[in-house]
# Entry
Amino acid sequence: MNGSEPERHRLAALLAGKGVLTSPWLREAVEAVPRERFLHPGVFLDEGRTWRPVTALGTAAEEWLKIAYSVDTLTTQLDGHLTADQVDEPVAGVPTSSSTDPTTVVSMIEALDLTAEHRVLEIGTGTGYSTALLCHCLGEDNVTTVEVDAQVAARADAALEAAGFSTWTVTGDGLLGHPYRAPYDRVIATCAVRRIPYAWIRQTKPGGVVLGTVGSWPWGTGLAKVTVGGDGTAEGAVIGRSSFMQARAQAAIPLAGDLSARTAYADSERSALLSPLVLEEWMPAFLAQLAAPGAQFVRATDGDGSPLRYLFDPERESFAQFVAADGDRWTVRQGGPVALWDDVERSLVAWQDAGAPEIDSVRLRVTPASHLYWIDQAPSPRWEHRIN
Ligand SMILES: C[S@@+](CC[C@H](N)C(=O)[O-])C[C@H]1O[C@@H](n2cnc3c(N)ncnc32)[C@H](O)[C@@H]1O
# Structure
């Protein structure tokens, strides 16, 4: 473990300097846990359109440590199966497992407000690095971690064992939590979820905290932190922007086929009050997901090169198509049972009227049957997502 000691101390000092790492016991963990041990057999480095495989064995020790202690997310699996030792050349693919950047990992652990005796459930083991930090702080018996991918889980388990942590590594669907070791004081998810599964609330002690990223777009997602009450509901706030790969079963299925077929039958057409381009900004995108959960935002160009934007909700067979008109004006055509843009636009206008507050103004309440979101100190709007 000693080989990377200077890098670990440098990482801890860097995170402390940024104001992210404040707890002495977590600093000790960052200084003790060798991140490089959790990256075997290797990582894929982002080269824009492709990913360059870099393996521990095929890289000079100094270079490998430099990569391991970069304050970056390091992708360890593509497309649900590919690891860096299986290819020699850069490849295309979608990241499906990674070691999240240490800034995010540490700031999320800090946000848990841990005390020494807490029992924690982690969803999304990934490499096991964040699990190891938790084990170092709380002891291996107080940490349970669930990973959906059997190979990823096996690699993490081996790395955790090698680092001296015989913790509870479970292969399974973390959306179910892990009832057999409940109740927990804290639940932390390092994959994004469309909504916080009620199973997590049920498996948390009253007064305990659930922390996870909500949303389903690659941007416009928020870190929800809720405290569980004695009545089985939970309430809290979105404490900041957060971006994670989606829980596997909830990953958006790319819309196949002809977009013009999806938009063939419009029920209405009007001028949009706001440009759909606002949805490329974080908070409007977050609000769009509250107003139209299930909708996907799609960018395209028309045959003549003019920009097109869409919202599609495949489940509810509804769409909004935006066609650029003069200047920055857009025409919106809507079809299907849900007028998606009417709902999104109403929310965006109300948010602007409330002074366009940032994402940490959003509060939420989770019950077995619903999620209710609202903006703090604004009388409206409220977004209720009912399960039934
Ligand atoms: C960003 S990585 C986790 C990073 C990890 N905590 C670390 O620090 O190395 C997200 C992980 O969540 C896993 N995952 C996705 N959906 C899941 C689910 N439904 N249950 C459990 N794990 C899931 C993925 O396989 C992936 O390994």
